[in-house]
Structures are given as C-alpha cells and as structure tokens.
Amino acid sequence: MSDSGVRTEYLYAKREKIHAREISGTFDRLRSVAAITLLGVYYLMPWIPWHGRQAILFDLPARKFYIFGITLWPQDFFYLSWLLIMAALLLFLATAVAGRVWCGYACPQTVWTRAFVWLERLAEGNFLRRKKLDQSRWNRNKILRKGTRQVLWIVFAFWTGFTFLGYFTPIQSLGSRLATFDLGGWETFWICFYSIATFGNAGYLREQVCKYMCPYARFQSAMFDDDSLIISYDAARGEPRGSRRRGTSPAEANLGDCIDCNICVQVCPTGIDIRKGLQYECIACASCVDACDSVMDRMGYPRGLVRYTTQNSLDGKPTRIFRLRTLIYSALLAGMFALFVYSLATREPLHVDVIRDRNALYRELPGGRIENVYTVKILNKSDISHTMIFTVSGLPGIEIETDPARLTLEGGQIKSIAARISVPRTALVAGGHDIVLRAEAADDEQLYAEGEARFIAPSSQ
After folding, report:
1. Omega prior to 404 cis, within 30 of 0
2. Does residue 203 have a pLDDT over 70?
C-alpha cells in the first residue's frame, strides 16, 4: 500500500519453477507404467515391419494411410473422422466416470513432462538438489549439471521429432538420409518444429500448458457431476489441522488427522493445495494421495485423508456409476464402434470414379452413333492383384471401349484409363442421361465397383 492509501495488486505474478518432490506409491507406479508403455509404443511403432512396409505409415504423397493390415485412402477419410469422434466420446465417458484420469496418466503433455523430469533428475539430482542448484551462483558444477540436462533434453526432443516424422515418411529411409545429412527442406522443418515444441512444452512450460493453454481444463466441469471420481481432501476428517508428535491420537490433540506437513503441496506437479478443494489446475495424477497415505502410515492413522472419491461419497450418499449420462455415452460409443467395425469389415475393395471429358460434349461417329469420352480412375484397395474388365449400362445399345480393354491393378494401386462410350443416335433424346460404368474383376465376378456418369446427347435438329 502506498502513502496515498492506494493498494496495488498484480494480476499476474512471475512464475516460480515447480520442483515437485518425488514420492513412491501405488499411483506413482501406475503413472510410471503408463508413461513407459505409451512412450514405448510411440518410439517403437514406426520400426515394426508389416509385409514389407511399416506397420503404421501415413504416406501423404501417395495418399495412403497404412495401419497394420488396413490401407486407407482419401475416399476413406471419414474413417479417421469416425475414430476422432469415438475418441472424444471415450474421453467424455472417462471424465464422467473417473474425472481427469486422461490428464494424469495418458495426456502427451503429462507423459513427456514426466520423461523430461526423469532426465532432469538424472542430471541434477532430487528435487532438493535441483532447487538448491537453481538458487546457487553459477560455477563449474552448476554449468556441468545444467549443460548435461540441456544435452539430454535436446537429444530426447530431437529423437521425438525424428520419430514423429517417421510416421509420415518411411523411418528407415529417413534415418539413412539423416545420417548422410540428405534431408529435404520440409523434413528438416518438421523434425525441428516438433523437437522445439517438445523441448519447450515438456522442458519449460510444463504445468503452464495445463493451466493456461489446454482447453480441456476449462470445460471439464461441464462433464463432472456429484458421482464423478475426483481427488479430494476429506475436510471433515482432516480439520482442524495441526502438527503433533508421531503416534499422537487426533482426539488427544483435539485436532483432525491432517498434520499440516504440506507434503501434498510439495509433490503436486502443478503446485496447488488440494486441501482448498477441487481446482481446474488439478490433473488427477494422485501424487498427493500417495504422499498423504505415506504420512498417515507413519502417524499410524487410516489412509484416505486425500483420496479418489466422489462428492456424493463425501456427503455420505451412495455413488452411482451407471447413470443417465454414462449410459448415453456408453450406448453411443458402443453403437459407433460396432458400426465402425462392420463398415471396415464390409468395405468395398474397389473404387471407381468416372469423369467426363469436358473438352467436347459429344462426338458423332460414322454409322449413326454418338460418343462421349470419359476418364475412369479405379482404385484397388486390397493387397491382391486383379485384372479388371469394363461394362456399361443405362441406355439401349450402349457400348464401351477402353484402352487397354483389360486393366491389371496391383494391390493398393490406382490407375486411370480413357473410356469411349457410344450409343445409337436413334436410341437417344436430346440432353443428359444417367449411365453406370461397371469395373469387374476377371477372376472374381463378385468383386466389382460401379461409377455413375452423365451421357450427353445432341438435339435432333
């Protein structure tokens, strides 16, 4: 407060780096298993071979998405949209039932931040040593440790960026060209871009991403209700707080079970105090649960002062997992998943596009026939080679000529051919007519695809 009686308050305080205290416990082990599993899948998946190619490869230049034995084409883009919708529904369901478990255990920001903290701990020591190192003056030890940390972070971030690009460019070829410094401009850009993004978000921004950049933290409350699982401090049991000697009964000290040790704050990666109630910064990592349980064990008190629970449970009411919200989410997710699997299993292995030549509406041929010319694009979505023959229907006396008459398509191949379709003039009236071009496998008459087109006829004058 100044001499004039005006008090100045700052809406934004300078960020203080959070050095979360290490804690061991059930939930910490679960988070470690989740992080190692997800990182292992991310870094190893591009190296898994599958019938002469990568198991997962999004080949943008060729417009092919390989996912193990499935090949998706631009015409199948709705499958990717479908997957995103199902992922959103699964997130909504998980949030309604178990709160922010995604944030605490599987979010990429959480997983990579945890990996960067492991590397930081390797270079600089535990949280107390890291904190003292940050507060100390620059000397040989500090330069060595900070430099080692930076090198570890840069290498890990670069490998992350390289792996990311490996999902879009065959990673073995990418690695060979990287070793000879023969990368293209766009490849270099995306590796550097993703490396810098990983380095900045997981190395420096950390909880700031969760607090200020992630939209999920802002609208999560719309998916919560009194039956949603949250991490909560049991104020009825813990208050009033106060320190005491180990083994002292809370009743004897006229205090609650909370000894006000603040360890729940020290272990929190976002720096909040869970005892102040549910906060949007909480990512439900349960570090505070492990920390408080360890203190309760040392004091000889029951565990669960800070725990996964629901608001109804805290109020002494029963918790309902199966309720209207979760049933709707579950039904929608199950229905969409069943339709997705059915659609994928019954997906047509052939696709035909028929494009009429717009340079000439029609041509008059000797013998009194009218001809339209088309470009036929045919895509073989299967992994088996087929020889295709072409027929056409829709008008009396309609005939088709293609060059070549039979077209061989390898598995996953797309080709274009010219098709000349003619109709006797006597069978036509002026204007456009719907016709259907059929591409059929010579070795399997049950395997075919059809494409619709318009046949243009001249006026009778």
Report:
1. yes
2. yes
First to last CA, the chain: 96
Radius of gyration of the chain (CA): 32
pLDDT at 380: 87
User: What is the residue-averaged pLDDT of the chain?
Assistant: 90
Burial annotation 116-136 (CB, 10 A radius, 16+ → b, else e): bbebbbebbeebeebbebeee
pLDDT at 334: 96
What's the pTM? 0.82
Whether residue 10 has pLDDT greater than 70? no
Are 111 and 269 a contacting pair, CB within 8 Å?
A: no
CA distance 238 to 262: 13
Q: What span, in angstroms and rounded, lies between the C-alpha atoms of 454 and 356?
A: 8
Instruction: With CA atoms as reference, report the closest residue to 421 among 444, 441, 391.
Output: 391
User: Cα separations (Å) of 292 from 28, 100, 238, 248, 352?
Assistant: 13, 20, 11, 17, 64
Residue 422: helix, strand or coil by DSSP?
strand
Q: pLDDT class for 77, splitting at 50, 70, 90? A: confident
d(CA 252, CA 225): 37
Which pLDDT tens digit goes with each residue over 140-187? 999 999 999 999 999 999 999 999 999 999 999 999 999 999 998 999
**Which regions of the chain carry the CATH code 2.60.40.10?**
350-457
Measuring CA to CA, how many Å separate 157 from each of 153, 175, 214, 291, 359?
6, 16, 21, 30, 53
Give Cα separations from 370 to 145, 402, 437 (angstroms): 82, 16, 17
The edge-to-edge listing of strands for the beta sheet with 406-409 is 406-409, 386-393, 431-441, 444-457
User: How far, in Å, are 102, 213, 240 from residue 94 at the CA level?
Assistant: 8, 21, 34
> pLDDT class for 367, splitting at 50, 70, 90?
confident
Dist CA 270 CA 317 (whole Å): 30
206-245 pLDDT per residue, tens? 989 988 888 887 777 778 888 999 999 999 999 999 999 9
Cα 450 from chain centre? 35
Q: Cα separations (Å) of 67 from 38, 44, 50, 168? A: 18, 14, 9, 12
Q: How far is CA 90 from CA 329, 343, 350, in A?
A: 8, 20, 32
Query: 350-457: which CATH number, 3.30.428.10, 2.60.40.10, 2.30.40.10, 3.40.1010.10?
Result: 2.60.40.10
Top-confidence residue, 388 or 76: 388
Q: What angle in degrees, to the nearest 10, is found between the helix axes of 171-179 and 140-166?
A: 130
